[in-house]
Design brief:
The protein is α/β, with parallel strands linked by helices. Helices cover 23% and strands 31% of the residues. It binds flavin-adenine dinucleotide. Flavin-adenine dinucleotide (FAD) binds next to α1, α2, α7 and β21.
Amino acid sequence: MIRRDYLIVGAGVAGVAACEAIRSLDKKGSIMLVGAEPHAAVNRPELLGGILGPKSSPIEKLLTHDDAWFSRNKVDVRLDTIATQFSLEQRAAVLANGQAVKFEKALLATGSRARRPQVAGANLGNIFYLRSAREVAALREVLDLEKNAVVIGGGFVGVEVAAHLRKLKLGVTLMTRGQFAWSRYLDAETGAWFSDYLAGNGVKLMLGEHLNGFEGRTYLQRVQTKSGGRIDTMLAVCAIGSEPNLQLVSASPLWSQSGCPVTERLESDELGIFAAGDIALYPNAHMGGMRREEHWDAAVAMGRHAGLNMAAKKMSKFEYVPWHQSRVFDLQFDFVGDFTRPPTRVEIEGDRNKKHRFVLACYQLNKLTGYVFCNEDAKKVQKARTDFPKMK
Ligand SMILES: Cc1cc2nc3c(=O)[nH]c(=O)nc-3n(C[C@H](O)[C@H](O)[C@H](O)COP(=O)(O)OP(=O)(O)OC[C@H]3O[C@@H](n4cnc5c(N)ncnc54)[C@H](O)[C@@H]3O)c2cc1C
């Protein structure tokens, strides 16, 4: 029987950050990192630009840690390996190769998967659902062969992909059910400005539109809209959100509809079992209530904090003000705070139209809930995080 002091399931950024943190406190404890993909964490904020950009980088260049780091830090890495069972009573996991691993402490960091639409034709060829680096690389390979594409979804991945495809000179239609892209983040006026900006860069927008289905035999030939439209295309990217990978712990107290519930120490009610990254449903004293983040910085911070708590004699609370970024053509955005609901009112400082440099303070009635920064100084963004008021 294989025994390890620490078992980390999921070799994405949260899992790798946890290994790093554990090693910083515990130089000798045995660590096993199990990951379904053929490589450990890829720098996702660089992934779309890195692979879809004009000088496409190989995946190896986008890895956050190389093999040498894992061997130097004595992390037993099992890649291309899925954990298929996880027993709370036995404190053991089973790997797809049949091995059972007993652990003292475990971290679940299995991330999320791309949501698939429940429509006809969703499995046709040349429809891409982007999650892993391999999937982005597969998309890159066909881009030189196609002239136009439909991108479905007006969230971060959808908008960024649309911009990269335009830069590669494809005709791009971006379909979103909102009245504008990023409709949870922007007010109507800024949303209209953003639509004009995208259109000015050649992205054809279909706003307030829903996907009805995909047509084709074996591979895609047409995208249908709910309003009866049909767009001829042989390439679609479907970016309609993600779902947490909780299959491993389904039918256990570590499962809930909204994520794997943990305490402010990122530990579950099962002592010694922690969760971090996209799957973790954690209490956020700053924003109020239980939250699940789906962003890079949060996954790094949670992975690191969970790792420290796993190895430390005394655990500490995870305190976090959400922050993430997005780059679209020549606009650099930073988002700080809570965007679970669209703002009911905003205050703008700066110049949206000419200089493309502004800050939106977003409110729910009179309560400040977040900031959107466009082409603003990094120091200003970090100050907003540090000074962000508690929401209670
Ligand atoms: C294309 C794309 C671009 C993005 N760009 C940005 C960005 O610019 N900025 C930003 O803030 N966020 C971005 N994100 C989101 C960000 O990447 C995620 O929030 C973050 O990577 C989550 O990290 P994680 O470690 O929790 O999960 P993941 O990175 O998803 O890693 C989890 C890993 O666990 C593996 N796994 C799952 N189940 C098992 C199992 N049973 N056994 C073994 N392994 C398993 C998965 O295969 C995966 O490799 C992007 C996401 C995507 C898909």
